[in-house]
Amino acid sequence: RHHNKGVALGRLGRDEESLAAYEQALELKPGDPDLQNKRGIILVRLGRLAEALTAYDDILRLTPDTPGSRANRGEVLLLSGQRAAAEVDLREAIRLRDTETLEARVLLAVLTWNQQPDEAAGLCRAALLEDGRHWSTFRRAELRALAYLVLHDVDKAVTELRSAVPHRRLDDAFQRELYEILKDPPLPELGQLMAVWNGIERECRHHD
Questions:
Q1: Between the N and C ends of the chain, which has fewer C-beta atoms within 10 Å?
Q2: pLDDT of 155-197, one tens digit each?
Q3: Do the Cβ atoms of 113 and 187 come closer than 8 Å?
């Protein structure tokens, strides 16, 4: 029940309450990797990256070949500015699983697009072939938009992100740090995608 409550509260964007529910569930089932993984996701949304990293470290100590947790740890490292370590985890996540790697492939492409443009393009093309059914409609579209951006197809990137705006959930957070990576050095078409994001954020503030 605590687990289900955590999921529901997370979908509503009530992250502190969701975290508390997952922690209650973990008191009853200590070390459960699924609960720890979901707890880590909430910690990331709360900006508590060091705690999220510890949660994923705990999972991977027990089950080192878990691609989902490996990819999530890579994301935390990426958002924390630990790019070399993030690259190792994201590559390992892709190696462990040939499918359901939409996020890992796109994040790795974002990380490497400047130094290894051909590989980044290949990662994005592979990511766009996946259905991404494990992600929310909006998050899937955002990842696909980033893939198109790395492929320098800004029109498709903008169309993809705009098409998903009506489906954005309260738990679909804007990961500003991810876009900051594409500014250093700047990906030429980034400004057009950021303009869409700025419109989304203004609309959210208006509704609030």
A1: C
A2: 999 999 999 999 998 888 888 888 888 888 888 899 999 999 9
A3: yes
